Amino acid sequence: MSANKPTKAPEKFIQLLKKAMDEHPQKPSLREVARQTNLSPAFLSYLLSGDRGVPSNEGIVQLARVLNIPEGELFNAAGKPNDAALEFFRRDETAPIMQKLTNVPKKRWPEVNQFLDRILKRSRQSGK
Fold first, then answer.
1. Do residues 41 and 32 touch, judged by C-beta distance below 8 A?
2. What band does 50 get if pLDDT is binned at 50, 70 and 90?
3. In terms of CATH, what superfamily is 11-84?
4. How high does pLDDT run on average in the chain?
């Protein structure tokens, strides 16, 4: 029987972390980032080398904070919903919306995303 290999973090996520560490004004070491995020240096090293999956949502939030990465950008790169999105998915009234979205062809997703952005922009402008 073969052992289960850990899931690798998406390359986009790994590259975003590496870039943020390289471009950070204080140039924190891997150990310093690990200390500030409450992740182990070994985990962070394995993560950056592609030998580990993405950390928990709290770990992603802490990495975003320490490395000055917009939180939403890091969650998107990780391919994970943040806690607010997870809470949204748990609401009863979202089930019909989610069911409809599962039928949208992948090539139309950018269009759906733009439509949602327009709705949110109007909501912010009207204060509702």
1. no
2. very high
3. lambda repressor-like DNA-binding domains (1.10.260.40)
4. 90
CA atoms within 13 A on the CB side of 68: 10
End-to-end CA distance of the chain: 57
Which long-range contacts link 70-74 to residues 24+ away (Cβ below 8 Å)?
A: 73/16, 74/13, 74/16, 74/17
Average pLDDT for residues 94-116, to the nearest whole number? 91
* Predicted pLDDT at 90: 87
Task: Report how far apart, in Å, the C-alpha atoms of 122 and of each of 53, 115, 116, 118, 126 are.
Answer: 37, 11, 10, 6, 6
Instruction: Check: CB of residue 50 under 8 Å from CB of residue 12.
Output: no
Nearest to 81 by CA among 63, 54, 116, 106: 54
Token pair of 6 as six digits: 């850990």
Q: Which sequence spans correspond to the domains of the chain?
A: 11-84, 91-126
| pTM for the structure as a whole | 0.74
Residue 2: the pLDDT is 47
